[in-house]
């Protein structure tokens, strides 16, 4: 029996075993390779996607667990918040190798959607599920702060 | 002329080794250097675009491809900007010169009448319908580079020295940017079973049982090498989860005594060598003696090592994130009994690379497994467990310093630095040096470890063991050749431990001399560039101002390899039982900064990585085994521990560009340790400075 999921706004019927990691479905079945494997143990956050608007580890989460739900990957993040974030990441040169970046971007997007100004400590807490080894944290924090402040200015 | 040309121009003399033309407007820069997260390709494109007066958008790059790139001996030691930069500058100015000659010849005018803008020639400043692209076919790219076209003078630069938008980062937010994303037709998924400890023997393997698992295409055993190939990533993961039941490994004998790697180092036989000898030989009463250590540490790349290989009718095609595709081609040829001409090795980006990690090993895994399924590309990706346990590690080190003071200044200094090797790369010391090759029935054993010689950037364990201050010093290296763990290059090699120790001792001695640590350093420095980074970072961090809230500042300084970039770091810490980083500042002088934002990123990243090493990291072991299973067993710095970081890049075009990838690590470790010592009033000399160590130190004081 195919399993129904909605990915980046499109309804999909997936013919895979329900125990298949969502990460494999997204990358290998659906070709969404912005989602990345890092540890397989919910330690690093590289595989982070949104499931019904909540952050979700796609490496340990299975296809079964997301049946009937709406999944958004980094490729599916659109709109003014996502654009402001992309621009800020480039302006701040946020990231070096960039492997951790797509997962971080998903978490940063949820911070943008919170709709309140955030202190640096709150941004750090919001990204704390992610590991980065290049030490790009300061530039990533600057980028998210920049995007948040751009949003504030737009809303005024 | 030719003896004045850069080394890589002499070894790759033809212009076509460095450049080709796009089909439409634009050029393709060919480089043997590869992107490993350091942003080098952007800086190299800037150099080429600068000489050719082209916008960056008209300069593509082909990188690290044995079929299409010049051999530039790999990408490591922060050398690319120093070695490849000048080569590209010379090649690009040659190309520009020949394009101008061709255009002038075609138009029957003097070259002095011509200029160019975005590849279009202008005659007396006016468009003339002739462009780089229209005359390209008349330029003989096969001819050797003459070196007779002078590159621009730095005061003419318009692109070099600016920070362009790093468009490659935008690509990283999509799929397809990494080797992990390569999806080829007919691709299968393989993985090798890693030995439980370095060199362990496979006693028994039930291949039939493994092959009977669903979705398994092939199971291969060759000596102590065991690998499987599956139809999908999911069936592979499932099979790997059960494979332990079907194999039996040699059991390692329990050690009589459990020792930390650094304790093992202390007790090992070592060979002494002189790094420098400046003190007259006589008995001394040292006023100060202290010993410092650094544990064995890992690379911890966030993305696991990955490679894709396809074997077909005696030919081998490999995609890898190796730092040296040319060296890897040699090893594939040897191990697989192929000629080099039948092998193509192509670089694709992996996750951040900080030295010799699992990239080369996984490529050999893929090459071996691809022979079991000819024609099918085989993708091999290590597990996190493989990463934690099988990658080469940074050597533990012990650094002992003795010194004496006269009139408040150091008048004698003796440093002994003990270390295992910092290089066992593929091909080093004549051997293959890859896990899978060493595990085969007819093995390619690892070479007896030989550390980086002193002549190469000041060596491996001895790197930066000479203090960059004006006092007479003896420096002795102690090399431990045989060590039960596989050691190789990790960012800054021995410089991290040596600078941590030297700069810690400088603070201890400043205290003895009753001098401020910054002033004490300046008392021993006449070199203007050294003084400038220290004075700059002191000003940036308001060094003189007292920190509230129990916070304390510490400083660390070094010129990387005593001949490359300069860096001084101040860190502010608060210590209760745990060390909390409040702020970090750095001043860096890389000579001419090609891409200042790239310099800043490398320095800042190095500071965060070094902070993680200093406060958290040590590879856990038991006997010959590495025991970490997850990131939980090898914690690294997380977002909630990141301080405010401020980096000032002092670009100075009077000096050639030097590398910055490794410059900030040692100074940062020292700055944090010095801050902690000031906060506690007691010095912790063993890294990492964990909560347990802080508590133990306070209790024993």
Would you summarize the structure shown here?
The complex is a heterodimer of chains A (about 160) and B (about 700). Chain A is α+β, with helices and mostly antiparallel strands. Chain A contains five helices and five strands.
Report on this model:
The complex is a heterodimer of chains A (156) and B (701). Chain A is an alpha+beta fold and 156 residues long. Chain A is built from five helices and five strands. Chain A has a five-stranded mixed sheet with strand order 2-1-5-3-4, with helices on both faces. In chain A, α2 packs across α3 and α2 crosses α5. The longest helix of chain A has 19 residues. The longest helix of chain B has 28 residues. In chain B, α16 packs across α17. In chain B, β9 and β10 form a beta hairpin. In chain B, the strands form seven sheets. A seven-stranded mixed sheet of chain B has the order 9-10-7-17-14-15-16, sandwiched between helices. The mean pLDDT of chain B is 96.
Look at the structure and give the mean pLDDT of chain B. Answer: 96
Q: Please describe the biggest sheet of chain A, giving its number of strands, its sense, and whether it closes into a barrel.
A: 5 strands, mixed
Question: If helices are DSSP runs of H or I spanning 4 or more residues, what is the number of helices of chain B?
Answer: 18
**Largest sheet strand order of chain A:** 2-1-5-3-4
Helix content of chain A: 25-40%
Shape of chain B: globular
The percentage of residues in β strands of chain A lies in 5-15%
Quaternary state, please? heterodimer
* Total beta-strand segments of chain B: 26
Order of helices and strands of chain A: EEHEEEHHHH
Summing up helix and strand content along with how strands pair, one would put the structural category of chain B as alpha+beta
The low-pLDDT segments of chain B are: none
Largest interface: A-B, 54 and 64 residues
What are the defining features of this structure?
heterodimer; A: alpha+beta; B: 701 residues; five-stranded mixed beta sheet; 22% strand; globular
């Amino acid at each position: 029996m195919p399993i129904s999921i909605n990915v980046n706004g499109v309804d999909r019927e997936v013919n895979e075993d329900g125990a298949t990691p969502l990460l494999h479905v997204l990358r290998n079945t659906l070709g969404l390779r912005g989602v990345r494997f890092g540890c397989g143990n919910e330690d690093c956050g590289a595989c982070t996607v949104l499931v019904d608007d909540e952050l979700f580890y796609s490496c340990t989460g299975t296809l079964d667990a997301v049946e009937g739900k709406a999944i958004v990957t980094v490729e599916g993040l659109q709109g003014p918040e996502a654009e402001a974030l992309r621009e800020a990441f480039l302006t701040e040169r946020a990231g070096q190798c960039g492997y951790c970046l797509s997962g971080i971007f998903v978490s940063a997007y949820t911070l943008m959607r919170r709709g309140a100004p955030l202190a640096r400590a709150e941004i750090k807490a919001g990204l704390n599920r992610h590991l980065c080894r290049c030490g790009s944290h300061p530039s990533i924090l600057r980028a998210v702060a920049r995007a948040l402040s751009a949003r504030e200015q737009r809303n005024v | 002329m030719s003896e004045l040309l850069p080394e890589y121009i002499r070894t790759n003399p033809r212009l076509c080794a460095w450049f080709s033309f796009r089909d439409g407007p634009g050029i393709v820069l060919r480089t043997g250097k590869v992107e490993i997260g350091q942003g080098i390709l952007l800086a190299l494109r800037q150099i080429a675009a600068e000489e050719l007066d082209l916008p960056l958008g008209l300069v593509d790059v082909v990188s690290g491809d044995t079929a299409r790139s010049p051999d530039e001996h790999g990408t490591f030691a922060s050398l690319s900007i120093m070695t490849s930069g000048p080569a590209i500058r010379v090649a690009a100015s040659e190309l520009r010169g020949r394009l101008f000659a061709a255009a002038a010849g075609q138009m029957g005018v003097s070259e002095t009448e011509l200029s160019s803008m975005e590849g279009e020639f202008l005659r007396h400043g006016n468009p003339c319908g002739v462009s780089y692209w229209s005359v390209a076919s008349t330029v003989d790219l096969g001819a050797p580079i003459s070196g007779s076209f002078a590159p621009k003078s730095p005061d003419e630069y318009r692109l070099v020295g600016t920070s362009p938008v790093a468009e490659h980062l935008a690509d990283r937010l999509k799929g397809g940017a990494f080797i992990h994303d390569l999806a080829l037709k007919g691709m299968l998924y393989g993985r090798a079973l890693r030995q439980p400890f370095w060199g362990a023997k496979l006693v028994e393997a039930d291949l039939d049982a493994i092959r009977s698992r669903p979705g398994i295409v092939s199971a291969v055993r060759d000596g102590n090498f065991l690998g499987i190939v599956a139809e999908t990533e999911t069936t592979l993961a499932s099979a790997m989860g059960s494979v332990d039941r079907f194999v039996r490994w040699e059991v390692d004998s329990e050690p009589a005594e459990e020792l930390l790697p650094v304790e093992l180092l202390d007790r090992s036989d070592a060979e002494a060598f002189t790094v420098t000898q400046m003190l007259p030989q006589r008995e001394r009463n040292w006023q100060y003696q202290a010993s410092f250590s650094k544990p064995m540490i890992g690379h911890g790349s966030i993305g696991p090592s990955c490679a894709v290989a396809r074997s077909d009718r005696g030919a081998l095609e490999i995609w890898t994130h190796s730092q040296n595709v040319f060296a890897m081609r040699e090893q594939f040829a040897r191990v697989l009994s192929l000629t080099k001409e039948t092998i193509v090795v192509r670089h694709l980006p992996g996750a951040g690379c900080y030295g010799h990690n699992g990239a080369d090993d996984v490529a050999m895994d893929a090459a071996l497994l691809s022979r079991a399924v000819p024609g099918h590309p085989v993708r091999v990706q290590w597990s996190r467990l493989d990463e934690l346990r099988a990658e080469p590690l940074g050597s533990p080190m012990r650094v002992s310093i003795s010194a004496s003071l006269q009139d408040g200044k150091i008048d004698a200094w003796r440093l002994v630095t003990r270390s295992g090797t910092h290089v066992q790369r593929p091909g080093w010391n004549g051997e293959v040096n890859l896990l899978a090759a060493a595990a085969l029935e007819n093995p390619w054993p690892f070479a007896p470890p030989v550390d980086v010689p002193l002549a190469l950037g000041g060596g491996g364990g001895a790197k930066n063991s000479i203090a960059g201050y004006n006092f007479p010093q003896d420096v002795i290296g102690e090399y431990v050749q045989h060590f039960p763990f596989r050691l190789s290059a990790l960012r800054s090699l021995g410089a991290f431990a040596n600078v941590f120790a030297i700069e810690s001792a400088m603070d201890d001695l400043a205290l003895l001399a009753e001098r401020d640590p910054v002033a004490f350093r300046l008392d021993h420095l006449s070199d203007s560039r050294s003084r400038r980074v220290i004075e700059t970072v002191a000003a940036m961090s308001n060094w003189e101002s007292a920190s509230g809230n129990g916070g304390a500042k510490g400083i660390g300084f070094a010129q990387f390899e005593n001949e490359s970039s300069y860096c001084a770091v101040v860190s502010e810490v608060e210590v209760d039982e745990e060390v909390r980083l409040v702020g970090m500042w750095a001043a860096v002088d890389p000579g001419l900064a090609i891409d200042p934002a790239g310099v800043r990123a490398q320095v800042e990243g190095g500071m965060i990585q070094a902070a993680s090493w200093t406060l958290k990291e040590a590879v856990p072991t038991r006997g010959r085994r590495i025991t970490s299973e997850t990131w939980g067993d090898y914690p690294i710095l997380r977002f909630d521990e990141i301080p405010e970081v401020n980096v000032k890049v002092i670009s100075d075009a009077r000096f050639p560009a030097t590398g910055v990838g490794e410059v900030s690590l040692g100074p940062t470790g020292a700055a944090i340790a010095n801050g902690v010592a000031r906060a506690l009033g007691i010095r912790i000399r063993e890294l990492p400075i964990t909560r347990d160590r802080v508590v133990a130190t306070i209790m024993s004081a």
